[in-house]
Each structure stands twice: as structure tokens, then as C-alpha cells.
Amino acid sequence: MNSIHVRVADWQKDNAELRRIREAVFIAEQSVPPELEWDADDADAVHFLAYEGDFPIGTARLLPDGHIGRVSVLKDWRGLKVGDALMQATILEAEKRGLKQQMLSAQVHATPFYERLGFKIVSDEFLEAGIPHVDMVRVS
């Protein structure tokens, strides 16, 4: 396996790759309706792409208020620390921007992953796109 690396992506230039990954994970695998997946926040977000070699395999986004979202890794690359690399890059960028608090809505099954990164559950369980979620917060 090539090494995994993450870079800040450009929503316009990297749109096809960002969409390909999110459509595969959220729309095809998890049955999230397209109208819920794509929103106006994408234009203002800082986007990230994770690569194995030259091939994009994961994505995440950071909103100006410190919300992290759309963390997604293609199925064949799960369990290989791609999510860790994406989250570390996203948290670092948030801190560089002075965002001392990062927030996210996590799918309940993924809460142990986010807890390892310092996030704490701050809400009761709720449904988003028919999937159980909780809100989580991390303070730098």
C-alpha cells in the first residue's frame, strides 16, 4: 500500500472527486437522499481529500464555524487509518484558523472513532437522513 496523504482541496477544481467519494459513501451505501447530501455549505467550506498515491479515497469538510462534516472513506480503504489522517488534517486546519472548538454530528456507530480523537458526546441520539447520530464537541 502506498502512503496515505491528505491535502486541502478546491471545491471547484476537485469537485468531481469530492462528489464521487461522497456519492459512493453517503448516497449509494447509506441511502442518504442527494438533496440532503449537497447543500449551500459546500461553497464556504474548506474541503480535504485523502489519497493513496494519486488516487482520492476519502474526504471531509470544515465549515467556518468549526463544524466538521462529510467525513467519508471509500469502503476498500476503511480500517487503514485514512479517517484518522483526514480528521487530523481537519483539526489542524481548524486550529490554524483559530477555531478552538470543533463540532460534528457523528453516526452513532462511529462515536468511538471520534472519542479517540478527543471528541465528547454532547447530545441525545437523533435521526439525520434516517441514520442515528449524536452531536460531539472537541475543545483544543
UniProtKB/TrEMBL annotation:
Pfam families: Acetyltransf_10. Residues 4-140 form the N-acetyltransferase domain. Keywords: Acyltransferase, Transferase. PROSITE patterns: GNAT. One of its GO terms (molecular function) is acyltransferase activity, transferring groups other than amino-acyl groups. Its EC number is 2.3.1.-. It is an enzyme of class 2 (transferase). The keyword Nucleus does not apply. Gene3D superfamilies: 3.40.630.30. This is GNAT family N-acetyltransferase.
